[in-house]
């Protein structure tokens, strides 16, 4: 039952196009104001960009899931339902130019089961009704405990499905009203929506938080999301009250202490966000923009926003240090260590003396010889940045080099504090590291060498013009100083950063950039290398399963598909009223549709033949002949002289009635690595009924290469046809052999075969 409803919901998301038509009524005038989540595709906009190569690649990826038996069973079940309903268009009658999703439930109590509502303006209500009617009928046939009902309520006809095996409060129901389709996981919720359909009040459009959020989102909005969190404080208080009653019943002292702490922290945390809104937009230049508006609770400014986020938006200058091969960076003037420390103290100040972590912190500071506030936090500034370079695949252990940058409030104090930390670690606590210093571009670089030489990490730091640079190795730090000096090109040479530079230049509290195309490429190559280690699959899945092996294959191909996302920039600004996020992403179609078999060929080139052979055998056992043929065709392509793969491929093809495919595989192998034995196998598979054609083909192949012995080939083909019972073909080939090559060894064997055949007859 739940599976069928899941099908309908998933199909609504997959098959519904991002296009809109004129309408008489907005969906936010239909959905009631008690909705927790509302997703609305109900506004006019420009057509969605098309990416044919990406779409074809994703279709190939979905098809490869047939390697998993569970996916096959699920697909066969769905196909059986579709065949029984005779629906050539699948679920297309349920899609509409305008649609919306809404989630209800979890009011002041958590006992209410959430329900999901799907609304669509369908083009053909009769076809949609026929489809749903057939699905409901099929559901009653597949699951006997389920019962179907038809009700007349007001002016609506409601079809519902329920039964004793279903979760209480859950009943799948639908109704068609003019061109509007209502499909809900709860019949009472559907009735509630329908009976309020003609009322003007009580709709989500009238919700003040909804109005506030939407007024801040840009237009045109291609898709809108609204999440109502105003009930969270009531839910949190209800849960705490229930736990307190439980504690009084059991008199549990540990629970009492935990509830005392929760009673001080949970009310503050629950009153942070009132509502969330988001809008999606497409642009004409291949970009899409997602804007998110988080409407804050008035009390949040005192408990969280002021101490942690109370900073004005700023323009960051970290990019003047970042190299061209920067994969991603995250910069901010919020969430600094000082900010986090202030918030932590704000939440734990009221804790009882015996439970306050500050007392334990003082003891730890005395033991290690460092003061958190005096030696570490006192010289740190508010602006910081973390950057990750594109993975270096040429290193012994492929890793991402990383850097942490931070503006310091007092450079002299910072250098003294870092020197003290180094002294405490190396001299006092005898840490197994050595410190080296060097002068580079008028800066002093300190590098720490670890006792593991193969590990590509040697932390290095320096302070340049009031900026602390801490990197995972000294070479990256020198490269950054070169960029700062202008002798080496920096991140401004990255094509996607240049394209998004205007978005990155806007003042904000948080800024991030990602070169997703480069990062997905390197992660794909790293995943391929890892998945070529046969022992890894055994470690995670055991000797009998191919699941880890195939999952890594699919993951590598998915990363190839995701290179449709080229790069993005995100900015976040925060004030006492809201958190506003804007993310701009570059989309470009893939240059071509990559072959699914590329991964397997890559593995073969790395010597993972044994694992791929196991995959082919596993597919044969599971009855998936098409994919087994694909596997053995690749093995035959890589190892044409190893006839066991061709033989296996031929057997599978012949069993499936695909003789032409088997012949084609042998012909390709013969062209790559010609041999007498291979030619004999090819003619056995071909099963020609014309002896003259066989003789002519053998002669032609032998004339093209000295690696084929014409006499031995004719003899082998004839003997094989004898074994198959084709005596006429065999005699004709042997006779030709004797006449054309009377003095050959093969002719002697041919005469012996003919004499033996006469004696037998």
Can you summarize this structure?
This protein is α+β, with helices and mostly antiparallel strands. Helix 21 (609-621) runs antiparallel to helix 22, helix 27 (710-723) packs parallel to helix 29 (745-760) and helix 28 runs antiparallel to helix 29.
Task: Annotate the secondary structure layout.
Blueprint: H1 2-15, E1 37-41, H2 52-64, H3 69-85, E2 96-104, E3 115-122, H4 125-142, E4 147-153, E5 156-162, E6 172-177, E7 180-184, H5 187-195, H6 208-215, E8 223-228, H7 232-250, H8 253-270, E9 273-282, E10 287-296, H9 300-309, E11 326-332, H10 337-348, H11 357-368, H12 372-376, E12 380-389, E13 402-408, H13 411-428, E14 434-440, E15 443-449, E16 460-464, E17 467-471, H14 474-485, H15 495-499, H16 501-504, E18 510-514, H17 516-531, H18 534-541, H19 547-561, E19 565-574, E20 578-587, H20 598-605, H21 609-621, H22 625-638, H23 643-655, H24 659-672, H25 676-686, H26 691-704, H27 710-723, H28 727-740, H29 745-760
Antiparallel strand pairs: 1-2, 1-8, 2-3, 3-7, 4-5, 5-6, 6-7, 8-9, 9-10, 10-20, 11-12, 11-18, 12-13, 13-17, 14-15, 15-16, 16-17, 18-19, 19-20
């Amino acid at each position: 039952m739940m599976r069928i409803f899941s099908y309908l919901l998933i199909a609504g998301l997959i098959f519904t196009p991002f296009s809109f038509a004129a309408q008489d009524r907005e969906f936010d005038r239909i959905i009631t104001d008690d909705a927790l989540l509302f997703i609305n595709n109900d506004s006019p906009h420009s057509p969605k960009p098309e990416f044919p190569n990406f779409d074809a690649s994703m279709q190939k990826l979905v098809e490869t899931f047939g390697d998993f038996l569970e996916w096959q069973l699920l697909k066969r079940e769905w196909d059986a339902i579709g065949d029984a309903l005779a629906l050539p268009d699948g679920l297309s009658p349920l899609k509409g130019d305008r649609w919306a999703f809404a989630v209800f439930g979890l009011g002041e109590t958590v006992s209410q089961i959430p329900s999901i509502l799907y609304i669509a303006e369908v083009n053909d209500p009769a076809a949609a009704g026929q489809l749903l009617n057939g699905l409901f009928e099929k559901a009653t046939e597949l699951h006997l405990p389920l019962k179907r009902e038809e009700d007349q309520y007001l002016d609506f006809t409601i079809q519902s499905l329920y039964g004793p095996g279903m979760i209480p409060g859950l009943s799948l129901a639908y109704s068609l009203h003019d061109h509007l389709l209502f499909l809900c996981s709860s019949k009472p919720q559907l009735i509630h929506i329908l009976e309020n359909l003609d009322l003007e009040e009580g709709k989500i459009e009238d919700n003040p938080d909804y109005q506030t959020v939407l007024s801040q989102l840009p237009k045109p909005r291609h898709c809108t999301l609204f999440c109502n969190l105003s009930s969270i404080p009531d839910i949190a208080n209800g849960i705490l009250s229930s736990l307190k009653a439980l504690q009084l019943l059991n008199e549990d002292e540990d629970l009492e202490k935990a509830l005392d702490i929760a009673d001080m922290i949970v009310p503050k945390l629950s009153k942070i966000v009132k509502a969330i809104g988001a809008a999606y937009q497409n642009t004409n230049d291949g970009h899409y923009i997602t804007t998110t508006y988080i409407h804050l609770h008035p009390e949040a400014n005192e408990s969280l926003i002021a101490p942690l986020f109370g900073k004005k938006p700023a323009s960051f200058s970290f990019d003047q240090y970042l190299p061209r091969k920067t994969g991603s960076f995250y910069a901010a003037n919020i969430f600094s260590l000082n900010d986090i420390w202030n918030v932590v103290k704000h939440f734990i100040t009221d804790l009882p003396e015996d439970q306050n972590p500050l007392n334990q912190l003082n003891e730890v500071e005395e033991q290690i010889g460092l003061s958190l506030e005096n030696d570490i936090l006192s010289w740190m500034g508010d602006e910081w940045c973390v950057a990750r370079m594109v993975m270096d695949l040429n290193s012994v252990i492929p890793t991402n080099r990383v850097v942490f940058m931070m503006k310091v409030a007092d450079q002299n104090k910072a250098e003294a504090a870092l020197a003290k930390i180094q002294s405490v670690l190396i001299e006092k606590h005898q840490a197994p590291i050595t410190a080296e210093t060097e002068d580079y571009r008028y800066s002093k670089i300190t590098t720490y060498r670890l006792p593991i030489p193969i590990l590509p990490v040697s932390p290095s730091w320096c302070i340049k013009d009031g900026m602390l640079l801490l990197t995972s190795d000294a070479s990256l730090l020198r490269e950054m100083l070169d960029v700062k000096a202008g002798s080496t090109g920096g991140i401004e040479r990255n094509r996607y950063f240049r394209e998004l530079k205007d978005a990155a230049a806007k003042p904000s509290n948080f800024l991030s950039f990602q070169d997703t195309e480069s990062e997905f490429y390197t992660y794909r190559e790293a995943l391929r290398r890892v998945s070529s280690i046969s022992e890894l699959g055994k470690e995670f899945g055991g000797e009998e399963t191919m699941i880890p092996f195939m999952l890594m294959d699919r993951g590598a191909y998915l990363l190839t598909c995701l290179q449709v996302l080229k790069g993005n920039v995100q900015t976040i600004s925060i004030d006492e009223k809201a958190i506003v996020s804007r993310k701009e992403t570059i989309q470009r179609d893939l240059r071509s549709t990559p072959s699914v078999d590329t991964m397997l060929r890559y593995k073969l080139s790395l010597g993972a033949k044994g694992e791929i052979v196991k995959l082919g055998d596993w597919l044969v056992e599971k009855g998936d002949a098409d994919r087994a043929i694909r596997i053995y065709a690749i093995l035959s392509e890589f190892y044409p002289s190893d006839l066991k793969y061709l033989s296996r491929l031929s057997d599978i093809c012949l069993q499936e009635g695909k003789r032409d495919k088997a012949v084609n595989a042998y012909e390709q192998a013969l062209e790559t690595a010609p041999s007498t034995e291979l030619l004999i196998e090819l003619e056995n598979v071909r099963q020609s009924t014309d002896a003259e054609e066989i003789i002519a083909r053998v002669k032609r192949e032998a004339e093209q290469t000295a690696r084929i012995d014409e006499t031995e080939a004719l003899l082998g083909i004839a003997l094989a046809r004898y074994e198959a019972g084709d005596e006429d073909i065999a005699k004709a080939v042997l006779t030709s052999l004797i006449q054309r090559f009377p003095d050959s060894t093969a002719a002697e064997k041919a005469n012996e075969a003919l004499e033996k055949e006469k004696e037998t007859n």
